[in-house]
């Protein structure tokens, strides 16, 4: 089971306040399918809410402890029928890397005003991997580099 400091737990509780439950545990209890769903939700989101529909508090506490121990997650909060669980995302390292490679990227375009006396216009744009921003601030598709037919024939 993952351990959290009180400060980390407090931040996670604040972050979880606006979340809606992603998994609901019904009358069947904690089945293997439910555990798989909770695990995939933790991989995707990191912090999730689970709603337990049973009325027995002891049963909810047992479910809470079982989920945390089996999935190596940290218990954050248990209020009534809601359980908040945290596990660091596995894909966080891949998505936050600097070199993104081909794909979508966000670019800020700053254009001066036509008169030159007013504020420049600032616009955030998402461009694709095959597009580029020109010096004037417009978006153009990158052209495919032309290859000589003689060079391709010489390689073969």
Report what the structure shows.
This protein has 156 residues and is α+β, with helices and mostly antiparallel strands. It folds into two domains: 85 residues, 2-Layer Sandwich (Translation Initiation Factor IF3), CATH 3.30.110; 35 residues, no CATH class. 32% of the residues lie in helices and 26% in strands. The strands form three sheets. It has a four-stranded mixed sheet with strand order 1-2-4-3, with helices on both faces. A two-stranded antiparallel ribbon has the order 5-6. A hairpin with a 5-residue loop joins strand 7 and strand 8. The longest helix is centred in the first third of the chain and has 14 residues. It is elongated and about 75 Å long. The termini are far apart. The model has no long low-confidence stretch (mean pLDDT 86).
Please describe the biggest sheet, giving its number of strands, its sense, and whether it closes into a barrel. Answer: 4 strands, mixed
From the spread of the alpha carbons, the general shape counts as elongated
The overall pLDDT, averaged over residues, is: 86
The residue ranges in which pLDDT falls below 50 over 5 or more consecutive positions are none
Helical segment count = 5
Strand content: 25-35%
**What is the alpha-carbon Rg in Å?**
25 Å
Number of spatially distinct domains: 2
CATH architecture designation of the largest domain: 2-Layer Sandwich
Gap between N and C termini:
59 Å
Q: What is the tally of beta strands?
A: 8
Oligomer: single chain
Structural class: alpha+beta
Would you tell me which CATH topology of the largest domain applies? Translation Initiation Factor IF3
Task: Kindly state the percentage of residues in helix.
Answer: 25-40%
Please state how the strands of the largest beta sheet are arranged side by side.
1-2-4-3
């Amino acid at each position: 089971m993952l351990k959290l400091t009180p400060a980390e737990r407090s931040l996670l509780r604040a972050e979880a306040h606006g979340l809606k439950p992603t998994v609901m545990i019904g009358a069947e209890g904690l089945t293997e399918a439910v555990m798989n769903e909770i695990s995939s939700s933790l991989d995707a989101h990191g912090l999730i809410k689970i709603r337990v529909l049973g009325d027995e508090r002891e049963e909810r506490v047992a479910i809470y402890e079982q989920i945390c121990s089996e999935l190596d997650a940290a218990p954050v909060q248990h209020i009534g029928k809601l359980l908040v669980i945290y596990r660091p995302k596995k894909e966080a390292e891949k998505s936050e890397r600097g070199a993104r490679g081909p794909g979508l990227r966000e670019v800020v375009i700053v254009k001066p005003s036509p008169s030159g006396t007013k504020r420049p216009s600032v616009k955030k744009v998402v461009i694709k991997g095959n597009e580029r921003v020109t010096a004037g601030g417009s978006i153009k598709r990158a052209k495919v580099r032309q290859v000589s037919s003689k060079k391709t024939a010489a390689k073969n």
